Amino acid sequence: MSRFNARSTRPAVHSPVTTTGERTATHEGATGHLRDAKSELFLLAVSNFVGQDVFYEKGGDRDDRYTQLIRQLAVEDPEWTAGLLGWLRGEGNMRTAAIVGAAEFVKARLDADRISDGFNGSIVWNRRVIASVLQRPDEPGEMLGYWTSKYGRKLPKPVKRGIADAVQRLYTGKSLLKYDTASKGYRFGDVLNLVHAAPGPGKPWQGDLFQYALDRRHNPDAAVPPTSNRTLTARQELMALSLEERRAVVTSEGGAERLAAAGMTWEALAGWIQGPMDAAAWEAIIPNMGVMALARNLRNFDEAGVSDEVAAQICARFTDPEQVARSRMFPFRWWAAYKHAPSLRWAHALEQALGHSLANVPALSGRTLILVDRSPSMFPGYHFSTPNQSDITLAEQAAVFGSALAMRAESPTLIEFGGSSKAIDVPKGGSVLKLIEQYGQNDGTDIPTAIKKHYSGHNRVIIVTDEQTRPGWLPSNMERFGGMRETAIDDLVPQTVPVYMWNMAGYKPGIMPSGTAVRHTLGGLTDQAFRMVPLLEAGRDANWPWIGQTA
User: Fold this and answer.
1) 405, 435 in Cβ contact below 8 A?
2) Which of 507, 522, 509 lies closest to 62 in space, CA to CA?
3) pLDDT tens-digit readout, 200-230
4) Would you say 361 and 408 are in contact if contact means Cβ atoms under 8 Å apart?
């Protein structure tokens, strides 16, 4: 009989979101646990739609907490913070938070007189971070708008050079037509004036493009598209057509190709034809629309009477995993498309698209207890709105993750909870979208009571929540809270059973210690963090997503 080489003697695995051992209180008054600065920043960053209130935290307070953490870590650990910001704008898909974070990163380092450091001073962090978060052609102007509104019109060299690097990469004739509009405070020409970007390496055509952008800004009546840019000249030709000729282009064979050659978007088309976006107009522009634009316009397609043939072409794109991946849509956006589409002709394709967007959700073996928070703080309109200020609530976003986990698990127990809880039946081979429709709304948040009621020898517990549980029963609050006495999760689930807390809102206090042994906190609005679960259960440490995993 083995006395020492038992399973319990294997080294404990570690996950990156770590508590410090210091205790606090949740926003509902239960015992909470503070996280280290990196962990707090990560969970906040992946759920922070800048400037927007959440249930327990005003938008301004939330943004101040975010910028303070960025500024602290930009000086203490620039390599880690730069990695976070680049990943946040990329796989994390948090556009505004990444831009704000990069600006505050640079400001903090300039204030601390840290121009470059790292590997013997060889990495110019400030310029690199600015360039890394600017991934869409309108974002150089967004960066300028944020910086000048907060710190004035004097631009430090790293900001100028980082923006100029992004301009070389992003500015094309098509992007100018799409994003250089009068509604912007900083037009392409303004950006070029301020950062003095030269044409990029191997892009001599940008010289003519940049001059045209300057002319459009400062002398629009005399601006002439360069003949070297076919997209711009094609658009000029279309704009010269009469209204009757424009309608003829829309309905003609080859019309879609002509619109595409001129960089015509569906938004621009509506103004160009100066008439209704009927079926013919939509069918002419649909081949040129991105996957996200298609998903957001399904109701418009149905109301306009777009044909089933064209609808089938759209569905084919939704079922293509590569196109879904390139769209970088949050999984809950596919639920939103399904929720708002009048016709069921889209349903199967949307189910497949949702599955592609959740490719990292593992098929967990054994028995899995999945708890999905349906308390008032997960819904809009109670005190404040959810972070994205859409009609897709945090509760629905949590249901997307919980339902996908349940549908793929070998033996799931799916529970919706608040102050009370109940099981949801998970049909084998069923639809995630249909399963999401089964959830209701609950009162209060009582995580320990839900665990005690439903945990029964499961192999793991996964809780999708904002973590702001109430304190449980005490003589002083029995009428208010009910339930059982406040009980730690460690007293309800054996120390040999993993508990994964999926944090949906990024609040400062957590409900359990995390980062070592079998207690782990994950976060984000994409499926990226689910990759950690199989690693941890295989006895491997999980690292920050932009760093890679430890063997």
Assistant:
1) no
2) 507
3) 999 999 999 999 999 999 999 889 999 999 9
4) yes
Q: C-alpha 128: how far from its chain's center?
A: 22
Mean pLDDT, the chain, integer: 89
Residue 173 half-sphere exposure toward CB, CA atoms < 13 A:
22
Tokens found for residue 408: 């793929």
The whole-model pTM stands at: 0.90
Cα dist. 24→31, 34, 502 in Å? Answer: 6, 7, 19
pLDDT confidence band for 443 (50 / 70 / 90): confident
Q: What is the largest CA-CA distance in the chain?
A: 90
Give the confidence band of 388 by pLDDT, cuts at 50, 70, 90. very low
Q: Write b or e for each residue in 491-514: b if 16 or more Cβ atoms lie within 10 A of its Cβ, otherwise e.
A: ebbeeebbbbbbbbbbbbbbbbbb
Q: What is the amino acid identity at position 341?
A: A
CA distance 347 to 315: 9
CB 507 within 8 A of CB 27: yes
The rounded distance, in Å, linking the Cα atoms of 536 and 275 is: 57
For residues 168 and 190, give the distance between their C-alpha atoms in angstroms, rounded to a whole number: 15
Q: What span, in angstroms and rounded, lies between the C-alpha atoms of 166 and 210?
A: 14
Whole-number Å distance between alpha carbons of 224 and 73: 47
Per-residue pLDDT at 463: 96
Strands (E), 169-275: none
- Judge contact between 401 and 502, C-beta under 8 A: yes
Q: Taking the CB of residue 362, how many other CB atoms lie within 10 A of it?
A: 17
Interatomic CA distance for residues 364 and 411, integer angstroms: 8
Question: Which is higher by pLDDT, 443 or 152?
Answer: 152
| % of the chain beyond a pLDDT of 90 | 72
Residue whose pair of structure tokens reads 């730069």 in the numeric block: 82
Query: In whole angstroms, how far apart are CA 333 and each of 37, 360, 488, 502?
Result: 30, 17, 35, 19
Query: Rounded to whole angstroms, how far apart are CA atoms 46 and 176?
Result: 30
The pair of structure tokens assigned to 513 is 């210690």
The tally of CA atoms less than 13 A away on the side-chain side of residue 197 is: 33
Helix (H, G, I), strand (E, B) or coil at 411: strand
| 199 close to 193: Cβ distance less than 8 angstroms | no
What is the C-alpha separation between 23 and 34, in angstroms, rounded? Answer: 6
Q: How far is CA 233 from CA 124, 162, 239, 257, in A?
A: 40, 30, 10, 15
Whose CA is closest to 57, among 31, 33, 100, 27?
27
Neighbours of 330 (CB within 10 A): 21
At position 308, the amino acid (one-letter code) is D
Task: Write the single-letter amino acid at 437.
Answer: E
Between residues 56 and 70, the one the model is more confident about: 70
Q: Report angle CA 106, 109, 113 to the nearest 5 degrees.
A: 135
Q: For 340-376, what is each residue's pLDDT tens digit? A: 999 999 999 999 999 999 998 999 999 999 999 999 8
